[in-house]
Amino acid sequence: MNRHLLPLLVLAVGLLSSCKPTVPSQYIQPDEMEDLLVDFHLAQSMARENDSEEAERDFRQTLYFAAVLEKHDVTKAQFDSSLVYYYIRADRFSDIYKNVAKRLSEEALVMGATDGEVNRFSHLTSSSDTIDVWRGRLSAMLLPYPPYNRMDFTQQADTSFRKGDSFLFMVNADYIYQSGSHNARVCLVMRYDNDTVISRAMTISTSGINQLRVPELKDRKVKEISGFIHLQPEKESSTTLKLMAVKNIRLIKFRTKQNDTDTDKPKKDGAEQTEAGEPEELQQEPVKTKPLKLKNDNLKPKML
Question: For residues 35-49, b (16+ Cβ closer than 10 Å) or e, as one string?
Answer without folding.
Answer: bbbbbbbbbbbbbee
